[in-house]
C-alpha cells in the first residue's frame, strides 16, 4: 500500500531518521476511511510488538478481545487525543486490524501516516501535511519537543581511522593496485593494511569501508550483496535465472540489470514485497498478457540481518580519479560517516523503489556455469538520510 502514498516515502523516513525516531507507516484508503478499518501490515505489527504496545499473534479473534489504547493526532501546535483499536475480526482468518478513532477528520485517502510510540502511547503524524512534518524541526512544537528527547550523542571511536585516511590523502594520487571497478576499494584497504578476505563482517575494527569514485553524475552505493534463497525460489538456481532471462552480448550470455519495485525494467523484471511470508520477490511481468510470475526469493529477515551486520558504522570514502585501467590513480578526498541504519525502514525503501537490486551475472565457459559478481542491494547517496541517522562528512584533503 505504501506505493499508493501521495507523499514521498523516502523523504518522510529521512525526516524521522534525522531525529532518530523509529516509525511505522500506514496509508489509509478511501474505503478504509469510510468503513473505519485499516489492515495492520507486517511493518506495523512488527513495530507494535517491538515497542511492547501489542502482540497480534497472542490475540484471539472477535470483538470481545479488542484492545483499545490511548493515541494522539499530532498537529503543528497541539496534540489531539484519540484512541487506537487493535483487533482481529471473527470473519475470515482474523487478519489483524488497526483503527484510530476520528481518523477521517485528520487524514484524507492515501495520506502517509507515520506512527510512533512514546511513553506507552501511540502518536500519529500526517506526513502528507507539510506543516505537520515541518514541526519536527521546531523544538517549541509538541512533535519537536518529543524529537529532542531521542537524539543521541556521536560515537567518538572513529579517530584512529580518520587519522589513517588523512595520512593516505596527504599522499595525493596513488596508483591503483587492481584494474577495474573494484580497484578503488581494494587499493584503499591495502593502504590501510587490511588483508583481502571474503568475510561479510566490517573491515576496520568494526567499521565498514566503502570506497567509490567521485563522479559528477549521481551514482548508487552498494549496501551489501546477498544471494537469493534458491530453495524457495521458483527458478531454482542461478543458471536457470541466467538462461531464462539473460541476453547475449559479445558472444556471452549475460544478465546485468537494475531491478526495483516501482516498475518492470526492460527485461520485465520487477521486485515486490510479500508481507505475509516476509519475502522480497523478483517477479517477471508480462504486461501484454497481464501476467506476473514469481521467479526469485530473498527472506526479508536475512536481508535485514545483512544490513544490520554490515553497517554498524560505515565510512563511505570518495576518491577523485585520473587515468584508466592499470594506470588509474586515486586521490582519497572525503568520507561520510554513518552509524547503524534504521533497519525498520529497509522494507519501506524497497517497496517505494528507493533501494534497488543489481544483477551482475554472466556465463562461464561453455558449460552451464555462472560467473556471479553478486546480487547488489543499492541506494543513492542522496537517500542515505532515509536509512541512516545523521551522518558526519569529513574532508580529508
Automatic annotation (TrEMBL):
Keywords: Endonuclease, Hydrolase, Nuclease
Annotated ranges, domain MvaI/BcnI restriction endonuclease: 164-388
The UniProt record lists the keyword DNA-binding: no
One Pfam family cited in the UniProt record for this chain: MvaI_BcnI
Gene Ontology molecular function, alphabetical: endonuclease activity
UniProt keyword Hydrolase present: yes
Species of provenance: Qipengyuania benthica
Full protein name: MvaI/BcnI family restriction endonuclease
Gene3D superfamilies (UniProt xref): MvaI/BcnI restriction endonuclease, catalytic domain, MvaI/BcnI restriction endonuclease, recognition domain
Amino acid at each position: 500500500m505504501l506505493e499508493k502514498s501521495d507523499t514521498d516515502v523516502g523523504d518522510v523516513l529521512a525526516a524521522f531518521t534525522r531525529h532518530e525516531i523509529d516509525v511505522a507507516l500506514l496509508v489509509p484508503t478511501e474505503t478504509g476511511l469510510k468503513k473505519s478499518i485499516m489492515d495492520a501490515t507486517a511493518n506495523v505489527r512488527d513495530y507494535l510488538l517491538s515497542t511492547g504496545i501489542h502482540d497480534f499473534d497472542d490475540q484471539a479473534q472477535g470483538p470481545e478481545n479488542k484492545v483499545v489504547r490511548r493515541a494522539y493526532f499530532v498537529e503543528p501546535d497541539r496534540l489531539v487525543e484519540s484512541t487506537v483499536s487493535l483487533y482481529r475480526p471473527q470473519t475470515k482468518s482474523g487478519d489483524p486490524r488497526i483503527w484510530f478513532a476520528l481518523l477521517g477528520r485528520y487524514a484524507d485517502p492515501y495520506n502517509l501516516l507515520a506512527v510512533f510510540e512514546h511513553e506507552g502511547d501511540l502518536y500519529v503524524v500526517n506526513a502528507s501535511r507539510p506543516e505537520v512534518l515541518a514541526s519536527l524541526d521546531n523544538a517549541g512544537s509538541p512533535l519537536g519537543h518529543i524529537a529532542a528527547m531521542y537524539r543521541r550523542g556521536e560515537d567518538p571511536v572513529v579517530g584512529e581511522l580518520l587519522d589513517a585516511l588523512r595520512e593516505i590523502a596527504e599522499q595525493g594520487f596513488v596508483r591503483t593496485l587492481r584494474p577495474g571497478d573494484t580497484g578503488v576499494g581494494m587499493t584503499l584497504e591495502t593502504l590501510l593494511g587490511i588483508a583481502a578476505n571474503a568475510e561479510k563482517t566490517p573491515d576496520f575494527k568494526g567499521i565498514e569501508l566503502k570506497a567509490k569514485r567521485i563522479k559528477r553524475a549521481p551514482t548508487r552505493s552498494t549496501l551489501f550483496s546477498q544471494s537469493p534463497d534458491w530453495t524457495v525460489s521458483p527458478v531454482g538456481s542461478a543458471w536457470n535465472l541466467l538462461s531464462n532471462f539473460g541476453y547475449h552480448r559479445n558472444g556471452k550470455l549475460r544478465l546485468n540489470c537494475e531491478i526495483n519495485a516501482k516498475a518492470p525494467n526492460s527485461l520485465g523484471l520487477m521486485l515486490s514485497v510479500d508481507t505475509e511470508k516476509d519475502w522480497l520477490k523478483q517477479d517477471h511481468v508480462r504486461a501484454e498478457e497481464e501476467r506476473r510470475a514469481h521467479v526469485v526469493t530473498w527472506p526479508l529477515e536475512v536481508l535485514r540481518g545483512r544490513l544490520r551486520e554490515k553497517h554498524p558504522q560505515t565510512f563511505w570514502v570518495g576518491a577523485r580519479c585520473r587515468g584508466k585501467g592499470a594506470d588509474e590513480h586515486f586521490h582519497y578526498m572525503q568520507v561520510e560517516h554513518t552509524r547503524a541504519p534504521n533497519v525498520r525502514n529497509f522494507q519501506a525503501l524497497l517497496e517505494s523503489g528507493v533501494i534497488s537490486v543489481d544483477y551482475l551475472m554472466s556465463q562461464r565457459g561453455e558449460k552451464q556455469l555462472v560467473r556471479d559478481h553478486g546480487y547488489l542491494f543499492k541506494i543513492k547517496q542522496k537517500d542515505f538520510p532515509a536509512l541512516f541517522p545523521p551522518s558526519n562528512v569529513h574532508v580529508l584533503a
